[in-house]
DNA sequence: GCCGTTTTCGGCCCGACTGTTTTCAGTCG
């Protein structure tokens, strides 16, 4: 059983306890334990094998005992007994927005829809026949909302990738700022998972600090790419973008903007933890500010910015990317938050595809090597790595591959030696090489002489089991010229999960042999994922943040990989492309002496 | 059921919204 399945189980038990009317805190405890499972980057089974289940936050003596039974025997009779009271359809119903466990349970029983299969269709039918409105506790309105909820559910199941949401938000912000002749917008910021730079985003939420909310809202609902205005209220508005995505705007007077920004940035768990801390100090926190007890009465204090808000709770300001309640609050209380990496620390991009034709089975890039260099210089970099795909191995013999790579090397040599050294810019000649199913690299040994370094990546046979896949990756990484494991999990957001790897083995191999895990910035990869980045940091494994650009303009995407690194608590020291050119080639064993 | 630099017992986040209600329960973020 993997972590997500265990989370499903624990949450189902929580739901059953809720229906049974058990202690609500017991219910919450199971929900928390479920969430903790979803957050683990390492399998809970591994914790069990090491006897460390109780080290998972939210897992205590009792749940640990149940999980132990689960791993040892494959089932937990106690859970099965508890779950018997819940018809399987309930778990379909609670996915409908506006329907929680209680309502789902009532619908399942009163309408006699117990099976999971076809449950939503049956519910829809019942609603259309007016069978819900007549149930006790329901009415016309709730029936209508359930119908709309089902519709929304089918539409909403796909979350946006971070880059899509980010660019949409920037468009709205730019539009609002451009038309703001009277400077009504004092501050404007994205909110929620978007501001926290989570890899996927549900809705685009934007906050504006202003003294004239009506003017801003009037402007907002005229956004040319909006196809529908849902609501335009006094302080908030909602439109539907032509892509179908929802965009919310929230306004607040500048004096109180800090608490609003903080509250709606979340995460929910971060906020809950903050309020627990506040409570112990006899304070009460909300989106309006902090209430202090004064002479027995509560008095609200407002905050123009987040810094002063966090300060009054005894914390240093927490970067949004860290606000997941995964240790950042404890660190902020001790003023020991890490200094996160930022764009200015990046000295080069080591995963770029130029238009040089390597006769690969994958895509060539669209921009010439020279154009990539120009772009890199405009970004303030000192170097870049040209890493086109290897020539397709089934259609080239050794000699042909070497010829292609020789011509490829000429291009970087020409750039490196034809320019004035005063420019202080260098091209590393690399290659992105497929790791074949067997673990072999897809280029002949002799070809490596023409390369400065290589990235090894998996582009096929994703379904090997964990043991085979780990062996394959480690074999691929073991060549001395291979320095980087490209997009290490192989996930494609919204399309496929990553393949199964034994991360403990990968981490210790990388650390021992100076191999570097890539944080790939491509929009639907964002790979390594944030949780694994955090684990890599904890294990002392160094990484490289690359764009995998197939055109010069894609080199601007580095911010997305960077954001995932920040979510993984990454500092400059953890990332090798923050090194100067000389230090980098030293690390790669390429010290050439002389002017380079 | 979990958790602890005031606690191993006694607590456990806050406010808004909504619909079906006669004073509130359920859901959401």
Describe the structure.
With 596 residues, this protein is α/β, with parallel strands linked by helices. Helix content is 41%, strand content 14%. The longest helix is centred in the C-terminal third of the chain and has 21 residues, at 398-418. It is globular, with a radius of gyration of 27 Å. The two termini are 53 Å apart. The mean pLDDT is 92. The chain binds one DNA strand of 29 nucleotides through residues 17, 22-30, 32-33, 57-63, 97-103, 137-139, 141-142, 145, 192, 263-264, 266, 268, 271-276, 278-280, 284-288.
Furnish the topology, listing elements before pairings.
Layout: H1 3-20, H2 24-39, H3 44-49, H4 61-73, H5 77-83, H6 89-93, H7 101-110, H8 119-128, H9 140-156, E1 160-161, H10 162-178, E2 187-190, H11 192-195, E3 200-201, E4 204-209, H12 213-220, E5 226-232, E6 236-241, E7 246-252, H13 257-265, H14 268-280, E8 284-286, E9 289-294, E10 297-301, H15 306-312, H16 328-333, E11 348-352, H17 369-378, E12 383-386, H18 398-418, E13 426-429, E14 432-434, E15 454-457, H19 466-477, E16 482-485, H20 503-513, E17 516-520, H21 530-538, E18 543-546, H22 558-567, H23 581-587
Parallel strand pairs: 4-7, 11-12, 12-13, 14-15, 15-16, 16-17, 17-18
Antiparallel strand pairs: 1-3, 2-4, 5-6, 6-7, 8-9, 9-10
Helix pairs in contact: 1-2, 8-9, 13-15, 19-20, 21-22
This protein binds one DNA strand of 29 nucleotides through helix 2, helix 4, helix 7, helix 9 and helix 14.
